[in-house]
Design brief:
Number of helices of chain A: 10
CATH superfamily of one domain in chain A: 2-keto-3-deoxy-galactonokinase, C-terminal domain
Shape of chain A: globular
Oligomer: homodimer
Strand order of the largest sheet of chain A: 3-2-1-4-7-6
Strand content of chain A: 15-25%
CATH class of one domain in chain A: Alpha Beta
Distance between the termini of chain A: 24 Å
Chain lengths: ~300, ~300
């Protein structure tokens, strides 16, 4: 029997799931291009109804959503919750839409905010739920979690609460350098399969060059002298950019072994990079449904 | 009397000058969009004739050009000359076009190449001439020269020879982050005048954040919380990117005081950044004509 209807509602895509009381995912739907960017003004209730069509929740069924649907550009803003925050803090900060559909109350999971020693803030939205799910899957309460992507997130968890995090614009900067910069002229049109050797050389170079502004130009010079085969150049650049992320965040991590959360392809690449730096790690698949289920459980035990 | 006809022939623009035996610039022409990108196949002789029209060189007049005209995409390739290199080495590596115009022999100044401790090469073309000119203007033979720009160059000179250099993609990465990344959404359409306070805060932040991938996202988070006025955001981002360049290259410079070569606007910005880091510096204007004149003098004394 369905205990939770869960939505992972991001910028570009929307997924929905029926989840049992024990956390089992009973059914999952991908609604494709129904991300918040594709929802017209006033169109959220209609897309919401479409996402849950036929799943008519029984009384008492929880309905929760995480992701950019709770941002300022989303349905209703769920303001950022300050770190440290775990399931109980997220439950208290849920933004409720009392009648998201007739008789259905929808809770939007807030994103998190933090501030570093310089007083510079950082934000995330959606990753908090993935990390709660990963904690649950692994049966742990502490760890350093890495969610690689367009904007990679590094989160520190202590006693089940996310105490701090930091963002690197890794995937986005890779795309800019690869497609929009002078380096694009010497790179092939497609990335092709990963060249592990060129990738690892990039990771190592990132550490010794001391900064990406400098190391990136090496791709051009190596190409000019035919010292990096064309097909290996995207892998080498990927190594430089991911290596730069690791250089910065591992220095702040004080030797903790990272736990990679996300797609197997990215986790594999980061595992390879970490190995090249002599750093162990482990991986866990994206765990959004598990995270929403954990928040729903915390909601049950909230007075 | 003209002793040297000099051309500064880059990717997008072409300038020419008549220079006297004592280095005085007698006349200068800007030919606008006659950079090598705008020259059709086989079109170099016609543009060359246009650049020097009416200056009919007397027998014995030297004609020299520097810049991308000597690249693989230019008129004739002047292969990179390996460091260390000063005027004598550049003279020996000039690529000659025997009949660039009827009776006129044109020498193309080569670019430079180097290789760092990791075995990664670096290249430049045009900056070698500017640095030779700056040495001459300042009457010195040693120094750490910084040529800020799209691709900033840091050159070490010992006894009149460029012994080593390194490139950072500073200007290009600023443009990509400012106009093409997620940060563009929160930045005003125009950069506006420099906000010195926001710029210096960016330079300082670059040092403590440890890497641009991380520090850049701060612009977004500060904007979300209205903690950085919209008009100050381009200056702050500029400080983050220039500060990142300084972080990496000053660490390798071992306390040497940089000499800035180039446009007064950029030199002013770098001077401000260096001051914020407690690092003195001095500036000298772009000195391409002086550099070509110095190479011409070295040519005179070559057997």
């Amino acid at each position: 029997m369905t205990a939770l209807l869960a939505l992972d509602w991001g910028t570009t895509s929307l997924r929905a799931a029926r989840i049992a009381a024990d956390g089992t995912v009973l059914e999952e739907r991908h609604l494709g291009e129904r991300g918040i960017l594709h929802v017209e003004p006033g169109g959220f209730p209609a897309v919401f109804a479409q996402a849950l069509a036929g799943w008519d929740p029984a009384p008492g069924t929880r309905v929760l959503a995480c992701g950019m649907v709770g941002s300022r550009q989303g349905w209703v803003e769920a303001p950022y919750c300050a770190c440290p925050a775990g399931a109980p803090e997220l439950v208290r900060a849920l933004a409720w839409i009392p009648e998201a559909a007739p008789g259905v109350r929808l809770g939007l999971v807030p994103g998190l905010s933090t501030e570093d020693a310089d007083g510079v803030p950082d934000v995330l939205r959606g990753e908090e739920t993935q990390v709660l799910g990963a904690l649950d899957l692994l049966g742990i309460d502490d760890g350093l979690f890495v969610l690689p992507g367009t904007h990679s997130k590094w989160l520190t968890v202590r006693s089940g609460r996310i105490t701090d995090f930091a963002t690197s614009m890794t995937g986005e900067v890779y795309g800019l350098l690869r497609h929009q910069s002078i380096l694009a002229r010497t790179l092939p049109p497609d990335d092709g399969p990963l060249d592990a050797e060129a990738f690892v050389a990039g990771v190592r170079r990132a550490r010794s060059a001391g900064g990406l502004l400098r190391s990136a130009f090496g791709v051009r010079a190596l190409s000019l002298f035919d010292r990096l085969p064309e097909a290996a150049r995207p892998s080498h650049l990927s190594g430089l950019v991911i290596g730069e992320e690791l250089r910065v965040h591992l220095a702040a991590a004080g030797g903790q072994s990272p736990i990679l959360v996300g797609s197997p392809a990215l986790a594999e690449r980061y595992t390879l990079a970490l190995q090249a730096l002599g750093q162990g790690s482990r991986s866990v698949p994206a765990a959004t449904w598990r995270g929403l289920w954990r928040i729903a459980r915390a909601l049950e035990s909230t007075p």
